[in-house]
Amino acid sequence: MKALVYHGAGQKHWEEKALPQIIESTDAIVRIIKTTICGTDLHILKGDVPTVDKGRILGHEGIGIVENIGKSVRNIKVGDKVIISCITVCGSCNYCKRQLYSHCEDGGWILGHKIDGTQAEQVRIPHADNSLHRLPEGINEDAALMLSDILPTGFEIGVINGRVQPGHTIALIGAGPVGLSALLASQFYSPAHIIMIDTDDNRLHVAQQFGANTIINPARQNVVAEIQKITDGIGVDVAIECVGIPATFKICQDIITAGGYIANVGVHGKSVELHLEELWIKNITITTGLVNTSSTPMLLKSVQSGKISPEKLVTHRYLLSEIETAYEVFSNAAQEKALKIVLTSE
Predict the structure, then answer these.
(1) What are the Alcohol dehydrogenase-like C-terminal domain coordinates in residue numbering (predicted)?
(2) In the chain, what are the domain boundaries?
(3) What dotted CATH number matches 152-288?
């Protein structure tokens, strides 16, 4: 089969690899229908994730058809169309019993990280019963693909951790795919005012289409001053950080109200300053986390009912065999006006 293989920082190649095989009785082999590229994949290619070995097939998102199953698999059958969760779940370890699936002792984020991933014609999925979600008939495949990672991430780590409530004023810092996913999911809770902050005017325009009441571009506007105007000098109830750089985390600290929540979603590669000398008195809560995907079944039902439409995040489509071109486009997302790219197997 063909797959996108990591060969060290800055090096990847679409090449021939052996077909995956059943190793454990709880495994399934899935033939990829659609996959996508995540910002985490770009971090790997920059050499920011040293735990990824050379020769690894990248990717942790996808939908596909089950081709083969181990003898212990009970809930998934050959021929099922499934969502591949970005988090592998054994279901029985101490962390899984606490629904901290991202820290599963025999799973967590392993696809495209510690084992071969989904940017291939086929992939092996450990603990298939817990790590695959059967797709109902007629559901939009692009929407389903967004349930592999970004929609649960924005919902769980941004909206739920941020305790978004009806009547809240919330700010999302970063209008990339995860930030926009958090924007979509936040509307389950009817916040009174949603503010999107980003330096990319195209993404801010998309955020408005998705439901943002106010957009702020820090390249041209004073974020704190604008937030003060909107909130009558109080600050926002919830600040959701979706970039992962010191400047955006500082914005969250500058705009949060007393008793508010800062929910960090972004992947940080550098230290940030925590201004505890200013925040200690404000009774705020700061949360962090890696998605557990415990919300995926609920989100799948919400997509099926039309309550949320994450397929709106898709801006580009390529054949799976064109994945190297797709990476170039995604690596220049601002210029290319790219959000999520769908790669379809021939």
Answers:
(1) 177-295
(2) 2-149+292-344, 152-288
(3) 3.40.50.720
